[in-house]
Amino acid sequence: MAEKVTSLQVAERAGVSQSAVSRVFTPGASASKATVEKVRKAAEELGYRPNVLARAMVSGKSRIIGLVVAYLDNYFYPEALEILSNALQEQGYHVLVFMTSQTSGNIDGVVEEILDYQVDGIVTASVAMSSDLSQRCLQAGVPVVHFNRFESTKGVSSVTSDNYEGGRELARFLVAGGHKKIGYITGWEGASTQRDREAGFCDSLADLGQTLFAREVGDFDADRARAAANAMFNVAPENRPDAVFVANDHMAFAVMDELRFGLDLKIPEDVSVVGFDDVPPAAWRAYDLTTMRQRANLMVEETVDALLDHIKNPSTATPRKVAISTPLIVRGSARVPDIWPPQEG
Amino acid sequence: MAEKVTSLQVAERAGVSQSAVSRVFTPGASASKATVEKVRKAAEELGYRPNVLARAMVSGKSRIIGLVVAYLDNYFYPEALEILSNALQEQGYHVLVFMTSQTSGNIDGVVEEILDYQVDGIVTASVAMSSDLSQRCLQAGVPVVHFNRFESTKGVSSVTSDNYEGGRELARFLVAGGHKKIGYITGWEGASTQRDREAGFCDSLADLGQTLFAREVGDFDADRARAAANAMFNVAPENRPDAVFVANDHMAFAVMDELRFGLDLKIPEDVSVVGFDDVPPAAWRAYDLTTMRQRANLMVEETVDALLDHIKNPSTATPRKVAISTPLIVRGSARVPDIWPPQEG
DNA sequence: GTGAAAGCGCTAACAA
DNA sequence: TTGTTAGCGCTTTCAC
């Protein structure tokens, strides 16, 4: 077992001081060409690599970002995680993952654990933490950015889609498609994403002279969504919506299955279905779901941007509340208006 | 910005030595009831929490596990990641994620980076690393376990499904179902999972007096699988397979879509389709895919078990090669034999 | 440009 | 049981 090689050993072999070795491996440091060469050679021969943890201790920068994430069964998150992790890696950071569940209210405990690792920043994906805790992070000088969850807490940044406007657009689309009895299956009602999507949808509906024809709670859960679909559609034909907005794709797939296979309804002939997220299966032919695209790449970009800004300029950086616009992806699960997009003027 | 609270400050406030504080926060240490109380109180008041990194430096144990993972678009991995992360958390470890791509052969570089974090162990999910690198890890005293990828390298553990036996079972199922022209769409041919599934499938076919009727390469990629399906099925009817085993579910969905919507074939009437993994969408009614279940929970259990064994008993632990059996999940995408499971005797 | 020296916050002997 | 002491491997003044 070839034991750990330290900078001191490299120094001895290169015939320089230990601090010289440190400088060679420190990006912004100065060393003569000769020294650099000697050191690199010795390091190479010994298989030396700097100990990130030791560096973190003295510099106070761990280059670790803590990520709190709740549920990976919504396929938006694996996608986002992949992009986020890659983006951070490119900046020389790495992601320490902390799983938690939305319901098991131990999120605060998880965040404490994260802080113990002296992370340089925290990203929470779709989980809410107490504003108490947010304060603790701020006080500890650890910037927090909420991904896909708007948080009004002062001082923390959040990056989401423009869920409100996305909801509005969906309503316009459905109404333009001639639908008169429009239903909505909600996400988890504690989530800002859910609230914003619903508010935008209903406001827009109102603008167009309609109101929600039916509403059921889905909690962002496939099983509950299925039940919601049943409650909403397993009724006399005249009480059946002719279109339904399901608060995210994950639920929408379950709803479509229930509609087609459970209730023998045709999509979009009997009922139009639209979702939100545009996760990969939305594009699968069996679903072909019309949905609002959450642009994970842009969201991540903004997240990383905000995070690094706070890390690098602790005093001057100002919290951001970013809302990314969501293009409507028109596919086959909902009747398409004759005129779409709407004519100008 | 309430600056970092150190154990020294707690010590002063509690009127004890700094090491007393350390002991109170070290699981297996001894301290009198009185001391414990004083220290806990002081720590509480100051909001003290031990610095994991400092602890790691001196103890040599970081309680960080490095996870190298390639592609999260196969939904088996998010699932596995979630279970793994939770299992490790329960043992007081955390997961540092490193993304890489199968193709971009920089896996070795990634592993070097991992080592820099002084991780206590490494899990690679479905990626191969050079045996050179495996050696480096062993030499550094960092145990490696390969998840879902068999590696013959001496000294490293691997946990997979019993892919060979799974392949065999699928062949038995298809043949018992009366299929005579059986095709196979491969995964990435460099993967042990792919090789084992195919070997088992073909060996079993041979035992039953058949051979592969058609074979196309799918590379575990949805697009390539679609193309493969087209190449295999867009032919004169008599040259068309009556069943196809697709090397994983992720590809199977694309194949089913292509068969139904591209070629207007009925599943399972015109062609039976079976997959491997049993990811959540396999159970969605629109696919209802008959497939071999990879039991992620058991696989993770074995992975964690092996890893901790190596970490805790560096000298005595012996590398393990675990293969978890895979139950066949019979759904509607393939014709079901009249007699199934086969009668004994 | 370079080396000496002082720690970062903690654990682990060692004495007491 | 407790306090004292010596580092873990590194970055960073500070003289030279």
Automatic annotation (TrEMBL), chains A, B:
Name of one Pfam family that matches: LacI
The keyword Chloroplast belongs to this UniProt entry's keyword annotation: no
Top-level division of the source organism's lineage: Bacteria
SUPFAM superfamilies linked to this entry: lambda repressor-like DNA-binding domains, Periplasmic binding protein-like I
Start and end residues of each HTH lacI-type domain: 5-59
Keywords: DNA-binding, Repressor, Transcription, Transcription regulation
Entry-linked InterPro entries: HTH_LacI (IPR000843), LacI/GalR-like_sensor (IPR046335), Lambda_DNA-bd_dom_sf (IPR010982), Peripla_BP_I (IPR028082)
Signal peptide positions (record): none
One GO MF term: DNA-binding transcription factor activity
Transport as UniProt keyword: no
PANTHER family linked to this entry: LACI-RELATED TRANSCRIPTIONAL REPRESSOR, RIBOSE OPERON REPRESSOR
Name by which UniProt lists this protein: Transcriptional regulator, LacI family
Species this protein is from: Shimia haliotis
